[in-house]
Give the backbone structure.
Amino acid sequence: MQIEIEPQPYSSVQADALVTYVFDTDKKVDGVLGEIDRAMNGRLASLAASGELTGKSLELILVHFPAGLAAQRLLLV
């Protein structure tokens, strides 16, 4: 496993998986997740609005080949 830290937009990170957090708050798609959502044309906000993305404890959502991101997968924890 190789872990690298580089200052660059999240949408341009080329990796097998990009992992980020989601908090159980009223505004789930905010901060880092908001930046990723903008790159994905609002798809994460749609998941939050549908109730699929809740930010509850122990919830994981894996998105394969997320449109707008260079990463192969997006893991929302």
The CA atoms of residues 63 and 72 lie 9 Å apart. The helical segments are 32-39, 43-50. The radius of gyration is 12 Å. The chain has a mean pLDDT of 91.
